[in-house]
Design a protein that fits this description.
Chain lengths: 632, 235
């Protein structure tokens, strides 16, 4: 259905339907905006009128939220909204040429809407299809494995206004590409098993009441199933898999021990906002073993006494939503969710899925909670921390998808079993999302302690120059470091393992990452909002050949400032890719340092590019001779 | 309960719940700030008030004081960082002090003087921001907005109106007003609003009184911001 021609009544009907489904709850604002857009192709002012009336919130609040998320449009963006994934791996796979081809086919300018309002073509941050790229999103549905041929087909489908639901199903087939499975991906697991095992940890007689009480109120009884389950998690040494590596048992315990205010409950949140470029293991976990993840969340709820759960699924994984909801419905039927789970009186827990809308910063746990509350995804001031004051000020744990999957297995098989896997400081396994220059990109699950060299060998990487471990906010590892190992004691990682062979230009890799951070900065704090833009400008300046040692010093000063003054991890790590590549791949920068003395970034010829575009000229006479012959 | 911490070596008393900047103000010590205002919930976004607490950088407007904390504020390093943040705010928007009617009453300008900022240092972004002159009593010049959100908080928390909000993200974050037209004239904003009094820079301007007080006789013309801020109330 397309409602590009505004019909206020039809829009109001859509808004009413969506808002009623969300119980007229303003905390579901982002979900409401997202679903209104799915029906209307954008969020027209008439929809905001209606939301304002129905939800009783000011227009400024709705527009403030809508404006924060890349995938919510308050201006028409076409019935077909095509976004090319623009991670460095997509670039290496030739996404630029594909985008130009599609724009040419459809007679549309990049970033603009076609004159007939049919289509817009733009780019977006990594969509998590690095092992089967280049990728794109069409109306937020993922398509991988793009080729010139497929681009031509897609152009044809769009031109003929074929509804997305009638496009060939093969386009939307996303592969799991599991190349190495270990305890998680090989888990022989029957839904409910881990919960029954957790419950069985309670001494059997007379303690059911205390268990029940624990579930309801999370009282730190220290005995019975919940306490025993928490003990197993602590014994396992499990640490968060989202990158920060906080000890899961401590987080759960802090939440369990947090005082509950009247009318409050404890909350379990699964962070499936897998936005770190090059990471796609949560996509595979959710597609292959959703029951394991949901069961891990339920085990957590059991251990800490939570009654409400959320999965925050990144907007790029919208295509997984219906399947995940079906799995949840099945778990309710099987009494693995809902009331008196597994027949335990008072064991109540349910999970709802919220879908993000294109904001990397929402992977930060407090920003994620803000987004769950239907607000702009701005990281909170801390303390207080989510374990005491999280979702709607209630005690909340936020854990990564993989952490919950591991927790389910720990509940089933015990902490000691888990602690025996991996290394002393890093228990268990880690799922790596391997992509870039290798023969077999995909998902590799290893016990912690595996060396970079081993992974490279297993995935068929040759002539490797560098590996970006844990994405742009992680560490860039050079050849002489390939014996370093994956683990909290050496190379901690959220999962990305992006490989660059010796033909790649590491400066352009860093520049791509810097553009990413600039685009994803939430804009709340001055150093990150302005600093990431300044850094982007400096990298572009080097790219265009106006760089000098002065600019190097500026980059280093900016890095110090961002690390010292930024509000959250995004700002703290935004300079990492630049500093790492400067330290390890200096020649890539030296090549760019074409000036000895300070040279302005301003380039008159480049500034004339819009004039050239407007006049359709690019001949020599339409260019000024430049003093320093930089690339443009 | 009363306790103390040290700020640049001086012993500063505080009561439970006070932030570092509140305790410092009460003791008559100035910490540069822009988004902080004693009457509103702290925001912690401009980061100008960043200090080092036991060696770690933190915003003093959101960090609660604790007994025995060792806080550094007036150091060469921290002031250099604050100066850089101020320069960032200058290049991000369009701040042309000589032609701005807020000159002399502007906290951004006064803070820049206080920190010894001699130039903008970075390349200007020169963003394209329209001016909203629709309201009979007010002019909104978004060119000077530093996104401190004081007007947002004042309108929401004091006036109960939600006239202002931030929209957009990242470098595209911007102030919006509560009207479908996007025009201030179509909101219920009035001269009595608290939000009309709090803009630290020259965004929310009352019409017809821009130069009622001549340049040279304005607030920060008479004394530097460190001597005129709410800090002095404690002296």
């Amino acid at each position: 259905m397309g409602l590009n021609e505004i019909n206020a009544e039809a829009v109001a009907a859509v808004v009413d339907r969506v808002i009623n489904r969300y119980r007229r709850d303003p905390t579901c604002m982002l979900q409401i905006l997202r679903e209104v857009q799915e029906a209307c192709d954008w969020v027209p002012p008439e929809a905001i009128d209606r939301m304002q009336a129905m939800l009783g919130v000011p227009r400024t609040k709705i527009e403030g939220v809508a404006g924060f998320y890349s995938f919510i449009y308050t201006e028409p963006r076409g019935r077909y909204r095509v976004l090319f994934s623009d991670n460095i791996t997509d670039r290496m796979q030739g996404n630029r040429a594909l985008m130009e081809r599609l724009c040419g086919n459809l007679w549309v300018e990049r970033g603009k809407v076609s004159e007939d309002g049919l289509v817009s073509v733009g780019k977006t941050a990594c969509t998590g299809l690095c092992d089967q790229g280049p990728g794109m999103l069409v109306n937020n549905y993922a398509i991988g494995g793009l080729s010139l041929e497929r681009i031509d087909e897609i152009a044809e489908l769009i031109r003929n206004k074929v509804p997305l639901t009638d496009w060939p199903a093969a386009y939307f087939k996303i592969e799991d590409n599991i190349r190495r499975a270990d305890i998680l991906l090989n888990a022989d697991f029957k839904p409910g098993e881990a919960l029954l095992a957790a419950r069985a940890r309670a001494p059997s007689d007379g303690l059911n009441a205390s268990n029940t009480r624990s579930w309801r109120e999370g009282l730190p009884s220290g005995i019975g199933g919940p306490g025993a389950t928490l003990d197993e998690i602590k014994r396992s040494g499990l640490r968060g898999r989202g990158g920060a590596g906080f000890t899961t048992g401590l987080k759960w315990e802090a939440c369990r021990n947090a005082q509950l205010k009247a009318g409050h409950q404890r909350i379990v949140v699964c962070n499936a906002d897998e936005g770190e470029p090059g990471t796609f293991k949560d996509r595979v976990l959710l597609s292959k073993c959703p029951d394991l993840v949901f069961e891990g969340m339920t085990v957590a709820a059991y251990a800490i006494g939570a009654t409400r759960g959320f999965v925050y699924l990144r907007g790029e994984y919208r295509y997984l939503l219906d399947h995940l909801n079906a799995v949840l419905a099945n778990r309710r039927r099987e009494n693995l969710l809902g009331k008196d789970i597994c027949g335990l009186p008072g064991a109540d827990f349910d999970i709802e899925i919220h879908v993000g809308a294109g904001a990397y910063v929402c992977g930060e746990e407090s920003a994620l909670i803000e987004s769950l509350e239907g607000k702009r995804g701005t990281p909170r001031n801390r303390p207080p921390f989510p374990v005491t004051n999280g979702y709607l000020d209630q005690p909340t744990i936020v854990n990564n998808v993989e952490t919950f999957a591991a927790a389910a297995l720990i509940a089933l098989k015990g902490g000691e079993w888990y602690a025996g896997i991996g290394t002393k400081q890093s228990a268990g396994t880690k799922i790596l999302s391997v992509s870039g220059d290798c023969a077999r990109p995909g998902i590799y699950e290893y016990p912690f302690g595996v060396s970079v060299r081993q992974v490279l060998e297993d995935c068929g990487a040759t002539d490797t120059q560098a590996v970006q471990v844990s994405g742009p906010s992680g560490i860039c590892v050079a050849e002489n470091e390939f014996d370093r190992v994956i683990g909290f004691e050496d190379l901690p990682t959220a999962g990305a393992f992006t490989i660059f062979n010796k033909s790649r230009d590491m400066f352009e890799v860093a520049r791509n990452y810097v553009h990413f951070f600039q685009h994803e900065s939430c804009g709340f704090c001055t150093p990150c909002r302005v600093g990431t833009s300044l850094l982007k400008n400096l990298m572009d300046k080097l790219h265009y050949g106006s760089g000098s040692p002065y600019d190097f010093a500026e980059i280093e000063k900016l890095n110090q400032l961002l690390q010292a003054m930024s509000h959250c991890g995004l700002g703290h790590t935004a300079c990492n890719p630049v500093l790492d590549t400067i330290a390890k791949f200096r020649p890539a920068y030296d090549k760019r340092m074409m000036q000895q003395d300070f040279t302005p970034a301003f380039n008159l010829d480049r500034e004339l590019s819009s004039a050239r575009q407007m006049t359709g000229r690019d001949d020599a006479a339409a260019h000024l001779a430049t003093e320093h012959g930089g690339q443009s | 309960m009363s306790h103390t911490f040290t700020l640049d070596g001086k012993v500063v008393p505080f009561v439970d719940g006070q932030t570092i900047i509140q305790a410092a103000s009460a003791a008559g010590i100035f910490i540069p700030h822009l988004c902080y205002h004693p009457e509103f919930k702290p925001h912690g976004s401009c980061k100008l008030c960043t200090v080092k607490v036991n060696g770690r950088h933190t915003a003093s407007c959101t960090m609660r004081a604790a007994p025995g904390m060792v806080v550094e504020s007036e150091t060469e390093e921290i002031n250099a960082e604050r100066r850089a943040l101020t320069q960032m705010l200058f290049v991000e928007g369009n701040h042309f002090c000589p032609s701005c009617e807020k000159s002399g009453n502007c906290q951004l300008q006064a803070t820049a003087y206080h920190l010894g900022m001699m130039s903008a240092h970075y390349d200007h972004f020169f963003p394209n921001r329209a001016v909203d002159a629709s309201h009979p009593d007010f002019l909104l010049d978004f060119n000077r907005c530093i996104l401190c959100s004081l007007c947002v908080r004042a309108s929401r928390d004091v006036d109960g109106k939600n006239v202002f909000a931030l929209s957009g993200r990242g470098i595209k974050t911007h102030l919006i007003v509560n009207a479908k037209s996007g025009q201030l004239a179509d909101t219920d904003f009035t001269l009595d609003d608290k939000a009309a009094q709090v803009c630290p820079v020259g965004v929310i301007l009352k019409k017809r009184q821009g130069f009622a007080v001549p340049i040279g006789e304005r607030k920060y013309d008479k004394a530097p911001i460190s001597e005129t801020a709410e800090t002095t109330e404690g002296r």
